[in-house]
Amino acid sequence: MTKVSLVLGTGGARGYAHIGVIEELEARGYQVTCIAGSSMGAMIGGLYAAGGMEAYRAWVETLRWIDVVRLLDLNFKNSLFSGDKVFARLRELIGDPAIETLPIAYTAVAADLTSNKEVWFQRGSLLQAMRASIAIPGIVSPVIRGERVLVDGGVLNPLPIVATVAAHADLIIAVDVNASRDSVAMHLDPEDLEHQQNRSPARMGRFAVLLNSMEVMQGALTRYKIAGYSPDLVIRVPKEVGGFHEFHRAKALIDVGRRMARRQLDLFEELAAVRPDPEAGIGVQDVETVEADSADQ
């Protein structure tokens, strides 16, 4: 059985596509032994490592637009939302296991605005680690730990490949859900872009401009990270398949993820790609590894 280190990137609601990718990997007999993720990638990866991905999928596929709105607990102190309702539901699904007890090695990546460094969570509360990683600046409240101000890992590293290089795996597979349409043109079918986003300036309010700015920044950072250390395979999902905020479209986005993974894995397996030098392009001087506090604190 081929062992895989899996890297799951940022992308808001498009992160649902990670579920489809994981399901396709499992269907082909790959064994995921290590996961690193930022933002939504950290959440999906943590749920999978804790054995709760199927229950999570069953829940989010029932969410309508109005249900998503009801989960948005407004908090105007330092962001729009606190995220407490979502994480209360996650606690019901998986509890709050310690990361070091998970059967799959796991890293959640956040960004510390005080030190301007990545923070890797590899021990301690899983929920707290995921919560720190998804704290989109200005939208979801940051996690404050002493002098640390922890926000979305995508601010510094939207595709944390380096966090998986020490794992004993046969392949490193990264999933980029902020890819451009052109980068996956050969893998696209019309059904994949059935709900293609209209990003015309005339339809962009303040919230849309903020999210679009985040996507542009994270897309550029992702390309930089892939150039610095190329995984064996990058499964790309174009950002046109859905909006960052479309959390009511779980089933469609999961299905797109599985279709994109199927086509790109078919080609990868045919080409029998060679794994790159594991020492190339690694730089961890701006990374701190910390233990997550209890999510109750």
Automatic annotation (TrEMBL):
Residues 6-165 form the PNPLA domain. SUPFAM superfamilies: FabD/lysophospholipase-like. PROSITE patterns: PNPLA. A motif (GXSXG) lies at residues 37-41. A motif (DGA/G) lies at residues 152-154. Pfam families: Patatin. Keywords: Hydrolase, Lipid degradation, Lipid metabolism. InterPro entries: Acyl_Trfase/lysoPLipase (IPR016035), NTE (IPR050301), PNPLA_dom (IPR002641). The active site is at S39 (nucleophile), D152 (proton acceptor). Transmembrane segments: none annotated. This is PNPLA domain-containing protein. It comes from Marinobacterium zhoushanense.
